[in-house]
Amino acid sequence: MRLTKSLDGYRLPVRDEKMKKSIVTCVVALTALVAVLGCSREPPEPPMIPLLAHQIEAEATLNKGFYLAGEDIVIELSFKNVTSQIFQMEPFPPKVLVTPTKQYGIKIRKFPEGTGTKVLNPAEVANYTLTWDQRDNQGKQVPFGYYRLALGSIHVMGQPYLLELKRPVQLLILPAEGVMEKTVEVNESRTVEGVTITLERVEMSALETKAYAFVVPPGYSPTQVPRPDIEAEGEHSVDGGAMVGAGEPKIRFLENGVELVWDMLAPVPKSGKELTFTVLEFMFEDERWKGPWEFRVSLQ
Predict the structure, then answer these.
(1) Residue 32 is part of a domain; what is its CATH number?
(2) pLDDT (tens digit, 9 = 90+) per residue, 113-130?
(3) Between the CA of residue 155 and those of 30, 83, 207, what are the distances in Å?
(4) What backbone phi and psi angles, to 5 degrees, belong to 255?
(5) What sign has the CA pseudo-torsion 50, 163, 33, 29?
(6) Looking at the structure, do residues 40 and 124 belong to the same domain, yes or no?
(7) Which residues contact 12 (CB under 8 A, 6 or more apart)?
């Protein structure tokens, strides 16, 4: 992960920055991509073929800001022809995928594409309403937390092209019992292979959990230009439940080291007694250290 060259402060990994840039203006993929399919990790489809920009503008909106476990989630999808020519969408509606926000490559729910076609005149919009009952591909209630939407492909003159939403859409499912709202100061350190990581605190709110960690990488200099490459991977669980990926942290360069912030983690249930947060690996420049750096945080 190469960090952006900007003023000190929080910055996203480049992968997230590129994602932001792609979804601001892109609606149909311009580069060779792999079709997104399946309820878990599946073999990829043939790569998408580049398509001229600004063909179909795809957007999704939700009927609520967040949902309790078991509530229906109503998703309004719209597809606008932003060209000056007639455009045919096939199939319609396209495939819709629900994936955990922090776990790449895992498909929780797949809504298959339709069997019809939709012909759109210039500036015409086709709408489609989808209702998700919060169940996965096996019919089981999904865990509470953050999920995101993705679209499958359409065919243009017999060739597949991947659709992308104009703006990212996050779905938040809350625990039915309510959530914990407080900050726990941890300030505990773990050392693995000479690298010490300190979990500073955990902030819990109605909408997310944040974990703040601090590390002084070997050879770190706050004035290094360009900024060094840093990667870290974490996971977490509550009360001994299944570990859930925390994704990559935001990075903040300090005079005495580096702060790592994992955000948009699932809110903690009100009855939670212990949160486990684990840093699985840490990379600085060309060196990589395997953990785990494990922290058990009492919530009582």
Answers:
(1) 2.60.40.10
(2) 999 999 999 999 999 999
(3) 14, 16, 38
(4) -65, -35
(5) positive
(6) yes
(7) 4, 20, 250
Q: Which of 127, 89, 125, 132 is nearest to 108 (CA)?
A: 132
d(CA 225, CA 223): 6
Entry field: residues in the chain: 300
Check residue 24 and give left, alpha or beta (phi > 0: left; psi -120 to 50: alpha): alpha
Write out pLDDT tens, residues 241-294.
989 999 899 999 999 999 999 999 999 999 999 999 999 999 999 899 999 999
Assess whether the previous peptide bond of 112 is cis (omega < 30° from 0). Answer: no
Query: What burial class does residue 98 get, using C-beta atoms within 10 Å of its C-beta: 0-12 exposed, 13-18 middle, 19+ buried?
Result: buried
Number of domains in the chain: 2
In a domain, 18, yes or no: no
Half-sphere exposure of residue 143: CA atoms within 13 angstroms, side-chain side:
17
**Residue 257's closest CA among 277, 284, 281, 276?**
284
